[in-house]
Design goal:
- The protein has nine helices and no strands.
- Helix 2 runs antiparallel to helix 3, helix 2 packs parallel to helix 4 and helix 6 packs across helix 7.
Length: about 200
């Protein structure tokens, strides 16, 4: 499985030099939200480095593709889960029956915040999109949380790379998980403080 993921990673990066790079970015973001194992950040970083003036455009394409893909994942979970569950558990990295059973409780208690956190951090987003459909999370809440979290993630990456160049890419590659978790903690903490004060 590791070798397969590495080959997919290299294949995704190969699109950066293609005239269809933006189309590939959209479909990668779409697919990753429901079944594909490689996050679109890989191609987004490469494109932002090659054409820094287009960073925000790439982030928008990535966000739209990811949110639409998330809706497709929701539909799979809501309408077709009984037919597709065996495929997801067998072939999609991160999907396990045990993990899937545990996230049901998180959906019931944290709805918006759970989707938001998964959309922004390294938690496999496809598990959340399909799970949201299976466990019948309110669709509007799901879409709003997805738009905010995925937009924050991709626009933040684009802005950092556009501003700081290749040095930013190296730093993000090495510290991405810690950066996103720290940012999420700060953001959620800020909302909690506002709610307590007002």
């Amino acid at each position: 499985m590791t070798k397969l993921v590495r080959r997919l990673y290299d294949w995704v990066l190969s699109w950066a030099d293609s005239p269809y790079a933006t189309v590939a970015l959209f479909f990668l973001a779409f697919a990753e939200s429901s079944f594909f194992p490689i996050p679109p950040d890989v191609l987004l970083l490469a494109l932002c480095l090659s054409l820094p003036l287009h960073c925000l455009r790439y982030a928008l394409i990535c966000t739209v593709g990811s949110v639409l893909g998330g809706m497709a994942g929701y539909l799979i979970g809501y309408q077709f889960w009984e037919y597709t569950a065996s495929y997801f558990f067998a072939w999609v990295p991160g999907f396990t029956p045990d993990l899937f059973a545990r996230i049901q409780n998180l959906f019931q208690h944290y709805d918006f915040w759970f989707v938001f956190t998964a959309g922004f951090t390294p938690i496999p987003y496809k598990i959340i999109t399909v799970g949201a459909g299976v466990f019948e999370l309110q669709f509007v809440i799901f879409v709003i949380a997805s738009m905010i979290s995925r937009g924050l993630r991709f626009f933040l990456i684009a802005w950092i790379v556009g501003r700081y160049g290749s040095a930013a890419r190296t730093y993000i590659d090495e510290n991405f998980n810690r950066l996103t978790i720290a940012f999420t903690v700060l953001l959620v903490g800020g909302f909690v403080v506002v709610r307590l004060l007002f």
